[in-house]
């Protein structure tokens, strides 16, 4: 269920051109090239205005998936259109050819890969930011007026703690736990770190929610995307016993199931795209965990479609 493009990036061209089999995407994303922000008023270079900005992303990428869900929750289809890029970048350097003109217009003699996500200023024809956390907060605080805040100031400490837990304790630890070439002791330590992170999230949910306010925030989006990646990507490189231990967090996986049935989450869950992106960059060995799924993500998402 891949989202459709609503932008000047030609979805027809981007999706109709198959990704060359030689493309390999680096597992470690480089540091963001652009770190501009949307300001409060006209005194800032980039200030909030309807239809001034455009978001470019791929929902097969964890950062892109987080932004796509936030974009939908904030109802920004009209005020900040989104362009959905192919799951596997078509550039030989792992970048998107559709983004190349924007990068070159924004940085003189730019020679690096044209990576997504990108928040662009349509008025100036240049990139504002390629830093996903900043983009999410600017969408929420500068453009998402009239919708419940995803990054409320009074819950910012909790949200950032959960986001770090997802990035380091889930994503980073799962990556290390599934590295076949690593020392067995290092893999065991990484798995322990992963299970500790899942346990911390389980305890938070037992206390009423991921954040003190108990409402849907950017923390829920971060956790959901991390669990999607964990179950559909990282478990391919873990043994079956490790996957079973990961699954022993009932509140956490029930929370993921509920979120998947939410229309803002379900519409962007592109399982086929995630699998193709994984195959494009993965060089690791498949393990027994590849045959064990914790959630039936398609079934969870289809429940939302059935209620329409």
From TrEMBL:
Write down the InterPro entries for this protein, in alphabetical order.
Glutathione-S-Trfase_C_sf (IPR036282), GST_Omega/GSH (IPR016639)
A Pfam family that this protein carries is: GST_C_2
Q: Which Gene3D superfamilies does the annotation name?
A: 1.20.1050.10, Glutaredoxin (3.40.30.10)
Compositionally biased residues, Low complexity? 1-17
Locate the region Disordered. Answer: 1-23
Q: Which domain of life is it from?
A: Bacteria
Descriptive protein name: Glutathione S-transferase C-terminal domain-containing protein
Which species is this UniProt entry from? Streptomyces thermocoprophilus
């Amino acid at each position: 269920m891949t989202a459709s493009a609503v932008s000047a990036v030609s979805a027809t061209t981007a999706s109709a051109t198959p990704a060359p089999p030689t493309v390999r995407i680096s597992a470690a994303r480089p540091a963001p090239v652009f770190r501009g922000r949307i300001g409060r008023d006209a005194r800032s270079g980039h200030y909030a205005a309807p239809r001034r900005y455009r978001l470019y992303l791929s929902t097969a990428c964890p950062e892109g998936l987080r932004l796509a869900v936030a974009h939908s929750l904030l109802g920004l289809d009209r005020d900040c259109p989104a362009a959905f890029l192919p799951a596997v970048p078509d550039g030989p350097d792992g970048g998107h050819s559709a983004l190349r003109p924007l990068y070159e217009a924004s940085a003189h003699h730019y020679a690096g890969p044209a990576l997504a996500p990108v928040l662009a200023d349509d008025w100036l024809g240049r990139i504002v930011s390629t830093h996903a956390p900043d983009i999410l907060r600017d969408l929420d605080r500068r453009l998402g007026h009239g919708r419940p805040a995803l990054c409320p100031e009074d819950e910012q400490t909790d949200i950032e703690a959960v986001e770090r837990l997802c990035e380091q304790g889930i994503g980073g630890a799962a990556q290390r736990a599934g590295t076949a070439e690593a020392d067995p002791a290092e893999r065991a330590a990484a798995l322990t770190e992963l299970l500790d992170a899942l346990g911390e999230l389980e305890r938070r949910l037992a206390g009423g929610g991921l954040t003190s306010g108990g409402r849907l925030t950017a923390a829920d989006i971060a956790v959901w995307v991390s669990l999607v990646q964990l179950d559909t990507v990282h478990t391919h490189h873990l043994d079956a016993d490790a996957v079973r231990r990961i699954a022993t967090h009932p509140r956490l996986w029930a929370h993921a199931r509920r979120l998947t049935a939410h229309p803002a989450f379900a519409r962007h869950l592109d399982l086929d795209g995630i699998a193709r992106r994984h195959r494009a960059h993965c060089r690791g060995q498949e393990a027994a965990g590849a045959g064990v799924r914790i959630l039936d993500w398609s079934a969870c998402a289809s429940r939302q479609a059935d209620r329409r």
